[in-house]
Amino acid sequence: xxxxxxxxxxxxxxxxxxxxxxxxxxxxxxxxxxxxxxxxxxxxxxxxxxxxxxxxxxxxxxxxxxxxxxxxxxxxxxxxxxxxxxxxxxxxxxxxxxxxxxxxxxxxxxxxxxxxxxxxxxxxxxxxxxxxxxxxxxxxxxxxxxxxxxxxxxxxxxxxxxxxxxxxxxxxxxxxxxxxxxxxxxxxxxxxxxxxxxxxxxxxxxxxxxxxxxxxxxxxxxxxxxxxxxxxxxxxxxxxxxxxxxxxxxxxxxxxxxxxxxxxxxxxxxxxxxxxxxxxxxxxxxxxxxxxxxxxxxxxxxxxxxxxxxxxxxxxxxxxxxxxxxxxxxxxxxxxxxxxxxxxxxxxxxxxxxxxxx
Length: 358
Hints:
Mean pLDDT: 90
Number of helices: 15
Oligomer: single chain
Distance between the termini: 77 Å
Low-confidence stretches: 350-358
């Protein structure tokens, strides 16, 4: 990318950047947390999580010392929970290896758990003025359209080559350029719908625009499909308390879930299961059925709400209020919780109306 194009992007950004909370200063802790939260998540959604996180864990020391349960609860709803675990691991290393001071070079930042080239280059350039190019989806989209580059951005070789090319002409104020090209991709050179080419500051420099090929770029060809898995979720309920269990090793490790069984069970099979496990219950009803999509996996979920006569092991029984405050429930199980809450509110309303009529 030509130097004059980079300068136009920087000038546009300085005039048009959005007032986001992590841009109020160049504190590396603030930039780090925001960059990790923004992976796979829209800016609009991240803002409230960022404010809540900073209120509870305002320093690296606080993050290093936080209990895992609290950390998972703060991260609830953002998904990809390994990111949160790596944040704590990295914070501990900052305390132990760097005496609590965030490292100030690209290589040292890259050495921390969970921090890859993109995050390390963003922090190094924005906070410590190191000349490093950041590569994310927004950068790749803008670059391939400007250069009319038809290579597959899903290939690691393409990403490394684009980063190498940007490094050749990267301006001294790399942090401003990196933020500018990402902002341009977020608000003007958008991924879906029609890019706002009519107000783009580099429209005249964009080869993709001149050749009318921008709508087909970037090229991204993924070879792998999503593995499908079926689950039946059992929401055991006793007088407003719900049964939870903690997930073991693997996907969503250490988070809480409603008990579940592999496969889709019919009502007849549910009755047989309850009888086999000697679970005394009242009439149960069908809960929501839906699909939850992960990066490389798809869960097809069906559920049942099952009132039981007694709380039983090995589950942890919690109220809805306690679940909201203290237990991190992955997004995969949130539709069930929401449906249960809605049903509870409707029942309470019916009871109130009955009492009034009496």
